[in-house]
Design a protein that fits this description.
This protein is mainly β. The protein has one domain. Helix content is 4%, strand content 45%. The strands form 4 sheets. Strands 2-3-6-5-4-9 form a 6-stranded mixed sheet, with no helix packed on it. A hairpin with a 4-residue loop joins β5 and β6. The protein is globular and about 40 Å long. The model has no long low-confidence stretch (mean pLDDT 77).
Length: 173
């Protein structure tokens, strides 16, 4: 489970790479990988369909990769989760990282009962990890990170972004 540690006051530029039907990569930083990079995989290195690359120890997201089958799921349900009456902060979330919990460079959710979902339509994509009540939105450009009262990451919502003709995810107005 990813827990919020702090919020940077600025936002990060988002670069996008996509491979239609395979993955969406949202790259928040243009930096070289280093030995300090740790990974968060939802179900381990081999079975995950979402992976976040975090810089240890600060916990900033470098890269978010999602296996993606376009336009699936019930996006209306995902949009209902986006309660706009919660506290909103513009910035970039930093997550808690504990290097001793990483195994072979990967950390994965310890609770196998977690059954998160991916919702998508032509304009929005939501990764819902927990259906807990969200009390905080951290907004970084077109990305909304939803956190509950215990600072657990509940969802990541990518709004007004669509795959273009070249299969690259881009912001649309």
């Amino acid at each position: 489970m990813l827990k919020l540690k702090n919020i940077l006051s600025d936002t990060r530029k988002i670069y996008n790479e996509s491979d239609y039907h395979v993955k969406i990569r949202i790259i928040f930083e243009q930096k070289e990988h280093s030995s300090g990079v740790c990974y968060w995989n939802a179900y381990g290195k081999e079975n995950s369909f979402v992976e976040a690359t975090l810089y240890n120890p600060i916990g900033a997201i470098y890269d978010l990769t999602v296996l993606f089958m376009p336009f699936g799921g019930n996006v209306e349900y995902a949009n209902m989760l986006l309660d706009h009456n919660v506290t909103q902060r513009i910035g970039f979330p930093l997550f808690e990282t504990y290097l001793e919990k990483y195994q072979e460079g990967y950390y994965h959710l310890p609770d196998e009962k977690i059954n998160f979902k991916l919702y998508a339509d032509k304009r929005n994509t939501s990764l819902v990890f927990f259906s807990n009540t969200v009390t905080l939105h951290v907004i970084n450009e077109a990305i909304i990170f939803g956190f509950d009262a215990d600072k657990n990451l509940c969802y990541i919502h990518m709004q007004n972004m669509s795959l273009n003709e070249d299969g690259i995810l881009e912001q649309i107005q």
